[in-house]
């Protein structure tokens, strides 16, 4: 695995899988800057990112204006979700999350995890920002470093609403990988750690869980 070469296999084995529950995120989330900072610092600890290596900003300005000025823009299918300034200022990297993600803590955590993966891969000079697979590999790094449940859960979200006689639905996507790839990545993660029935799989959305099980079954037939 390429990520094993970059981070070391020991890190894969030692990664603690973070889950969307009070054991991992006991702080009350009220969408305030303080709550986002608290979430970010917990994710940083889980992923092995120094809390002193970054500063977090929340942005909501016109996306095209940001695209013209931000050195590295991390987008998503339903619009830009996060950003990473490549180049530390005063010893810290700046990461940003779009204010629209504050309504969805799971998606917010996934975006923050993706930007922290940038801090480790790009900020740590483990890969070049111009590499064609930089963004997909960054998504995969969140699995490698224990945030895969959040990243995969945010990959595709379908919501229905009903207000009196009005009803409708919406969907959003976050990240660079299709659902089957998330399922395979999580299955490979479990396989490498010799987890046959990981408890964390129960937190996966039904569609991702199905891909996870199919991939794990196939991986068990392989010799490597």
Describe the structure.
There is one protein chain. With 224 residues, the chain is an alpha+beta fold. The protein has one domain. It has helices at residues 2-7, 9-14, 33-47, 63-69, 105-123, 134-144, 148-155, 179-192, 206-219; strands spanning 54-59, 72-74, 82-84, 93-98, 157-163, 166-172. The chain has a four-stranded mixed β-sheet with strand order 1-4-3-2, with helices on one face. The chain has a two-stranded antiparallel ribbon with strand order 5-6. Strand 3 and strand 4 form a beta hairpin. Helix 3 (33-47) crosses helix 5 (105-123) and helix 5 (105-123) crosses helix 6 (134-144). The longest helix is centred in the middle third of the chain and has 19 residues, at 105-123. It is globular, with a radius of gyration of 17 Å. The termini are close together. Residues 71-79 and 158-172 have low confidence and may be disordered.
């Amino acid at each position: 695995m390429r990520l094993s070469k970059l981070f070391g296999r020991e890190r894969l084995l030692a990664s603690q899988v973070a889950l969307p529950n009070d054991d991992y995120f006991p702080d009350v989330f009220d969408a305030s800057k303080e709550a986002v900072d608290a979430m970010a610092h917990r994710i940083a600890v889980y992923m092995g990112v120094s809390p002193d290596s970054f500063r977090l900003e929340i942005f909501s300005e016109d996306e095209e204006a940001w695209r013209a000025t931000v050195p590295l823009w991390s987008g998503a299918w339903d619009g830009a979700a996060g950003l990473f300034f490549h180049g530390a200022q005063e010893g810290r990297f700046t990461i940003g999350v779009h204010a629209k993600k504050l309504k969805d803590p799971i998606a917010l955590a996934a975006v923050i995890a993706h930007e922290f993966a940038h801090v480790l891969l790009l900020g740590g000079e483990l890969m070049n920002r111009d590499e064609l697979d930089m963004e997909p590999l960054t998504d995969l790094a969140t699995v490698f470093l224990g945030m895969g449940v959040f990243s995969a859960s945010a990959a595709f979200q379908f919501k229905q609403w009903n207000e009196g006689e009005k009803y409708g639905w919406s969907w959003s996507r976050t990240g660079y990988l299709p659902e089957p790839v998330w399922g395979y990545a999580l299955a490979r993660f479990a396989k490498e750690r010799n987890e046959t029935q990981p408890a964390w799989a129960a937190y996966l959305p039904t569609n991702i869980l199905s891909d996870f099980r199919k991939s794990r079954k196939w991986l068990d037939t392989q010799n490597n």
